[in-house]
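Work package 3, deliverable 3.1, input record:
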Amino acid sequence: MLTSLRRWLDERFGWADLTAPLREKTVPLHNLTYWYFLGGITLFLFAIQVCTGILLLLYYRPSANEAFESVQYIMTRVQFGWLVRSIHSWAANLMIFTAFCHMFSVLFLRSYRQPRELTWVTGVVLLFLAMGFGFSGYLLPWNTLAFFATKVGTEIPGQIPLIGRPVMIFLRGGEEVTGATLTRFFGFHVAVLPGITTLLILAHLALIQRLGMSVPPKVEAQWRANPAQAREMRFFPNFLLRELMAWYIALGALGALAALAPWGLGTKAEPFAPAPAGIRPEWYFLFMFQTLKLIPAKIGPLDGEIVGILIFGLAGFLWLLLPFFERGGRGRSQRWIFGAGVFALAYMASMTVYGYLAK
Amino acid sequence: MDTWRSKIRLCILLAVVSTAVVRAQTVNTCVDCHSALDAPFQVTQDQFSQDIHAQKGLTCASCHGGDPSKADDSAMSKAAGFRGHIARKDIPTLCGRCHSDAVYMRQYNPSLRTDQYSQYLTSVHGKLLTKGDYKVAVCTDCHSVHDIRPPRDSRSRVHPLNIAETCGHCHADAAYMKGYAIPTSQLASYNSSVHHEALVVRGDLSAPTCSTCHGNHGAAPPGVGTVQNVCSTCHVFQAQLFESSPHKAPFEAASLPGCVTCHSNHAIHHPSDAMLGTGPESICTNCHTEGDGGYKGALEIQHDLAGLANSLQGAVQILDRAESAGMEVSQARTEQEQARDSLTKARVTIHSFDPAKVSQDIQAGLKLAAQANQAGVAALKERGYRRKGLGLSLIAILAVVIGLRLYIRKIEGSAV
Amino acid sequence: MGTEAPLKPDSQRRRLVEFFLGGGLLASLASFVYPVLRYLVPPAVAELGGDEVVAGRVGDLKPNSAKIFRFGSRPGILVMTAEGDYRALSATCTHLSCTVQYRNDLHEIWCACHNGLYDLGGRNVSGPPPRPLDLFEVHLRGDDIVISRKREA
């Protein structure tokens, strides 16, 4: 049956020619091959987010009066609503985690090198979009923690000189965090961000298909010296089957998390109640938040917080353009980039842990 | 030369006139000297400016006499009516001269009472003062002097939060109170009470302090027969139940002070169920002995209360477990809170000392607690169902993973 | 060492793979699809429950009387005034959270625990309560008396 379907498609769309590159695609085989999984898992988790997100859309109501109650409704009255919502919340965190892992593995395996600079750039933008998804989605249940985290989280960019205030008002839909903010974040979360992300994912994947899989420099050198050692695996079906195994295990992990540690509701946000002690953002923002907490109030003539925000902005911008700093060959620029990667990873990890332990 | 001299004369004239003008604006020259003196004569401008009397335009002379516009000793002349230091025995009459004059006080604060002095004369302090005991409290002992603030100012010594400390200044001082036949443990007792906790710790200004039960100007302890009238102004229900209870007549006959008999007057602690029954902390056994009706009643009541408290506790625990596992238990929580309300109500009903009445409230609460408990059990069952479902799907997923592994092996010929 | 164990015959191997893979895929897909299908069916209770509740029907209350109803997990009190209007308020006393009641002799809301009094607008008029009671909105929908929380701007 599959053969007759293939023939039908081929007669009309040249199916065999279209799928030829996929069937011939190979994946370099070396002891670091399994790091290639991370990108695929992130994509898989994104697909899960889209599916569970669409399901949640069937019952969620994006107004301050009803948001919390609608999530409560999903968790308690809709059949398996608890499962859909908990998977959505857990997969969101897992996806951002695997995205970070994917980015750092690309950095340390030096896959960002020429000709793959734009793959890196689209990838970093995708990471920022994922964090935007996380920030906008976190507010949607309209509980106390989310409300105040959003208040603090939109206050911080408001500090940027000149453009800060307009940006803050744009994000909040007003001066303060209100029902208008909720509606706006909902719009970002289900329409704007998915649209941009889909386009960028397609670009990212197209670049990967066009440029093939990168081989780590050490392995590359070995293979150049000894061509017989170079091994590769066919993507379809061998590598894909292995990836499917990983994806299925990820599904199992998600189900276990959803059933054993369902995502909580919290208490409904009351805008006029005082903020509870110990407000902090989700873990993927924690390293920035903790840094801002530790920065002294004044650095020379400048306000400490603004300096911190500008430094992070600059760091993000430079990170985006990372591959363009590498001047060909093995030299100082590679070591600088590698060092920057180690520093960034260590800094983010330790600041995140610190943020959790500090009270 | 001439112009120089006239210029100098002009300067001197200006200096004198300006000083005179400045002087004329300062109504109270007394403070100019007295701020530089040592205690007990020291009164600083800082201090006096906080005083409500100064703020209303009165001066030192309003109480002490003399001439506040003179900068020298003639300010304190007999001719100017100077009275000097006011003796303690004269203070109430001095304050009363204005504060009992309704027409005069109306100019400043029409809603202020003007019966403080007449009330004071009915108090223990007032009566003893009239008899010649000058150790007792007079106006300035509580209200301070020279920096008198209105009672609603939280820095005032007679603000509700501060009254107990003010009374305790004398009444907790054993050396000072030697010679009076009353104890000095009241402040310490009050500080251990629920009323103190409500007032000073929780900030509930409706909670009683010394003056709430004893009166402020007409301060005297309520009599044995009338103390429950004082308690019943807030604790209405308990007082009504007690009035029609079998304890009312015997307590009166034995001159027992009503509420205070079981709850104490100053050291009123949060009542516990252990005060009932026949255990080591029981108050009932102070009078009742084994075999009499009251002993049996005490046991019944305590048993009932303990039963509901336990059932409620069980419901709370199981609902907590269910809620932390993500289950919906709001209906059950309402029932739980209603059961708690029943328990609170029962703890009030015990003041009827009628086991049957208490039992009514308890039964209602037990039903509700049982319902809440059942809902918790159902929620945990649902949690179990979810875990079984998870287990099944994990088995299926494991099967797929194994299957994929075998399939890979097959197409690659055990090169995996 | 002795001889290696003989390889399983191909057909047996294929059946094993088919069993695990096919059976597993079917079972796991069922465990994904079944919850989704159940999810798509809207539950019987369409009300969200948090913002609105039916506290009773017209005729339940006589003038100058009240009843306690449940709003989420907290109690509310529905009063029919002597003039025949409905008032609905939170029934949790703002002093120490006892449940209040209506006094038809005082035409006010009373808390039995410490003699707190509120007027029918919820204002704390006497006794220990430090804050007024929250007011709810009352609407009549046919014969139902519907209580809802005040809307946020």
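The beta strands of chain C are 52-57, 65-71, 74-80, 86-90, 101-103, 108-111, 116-118, 124-126, 135-141, 144-148.
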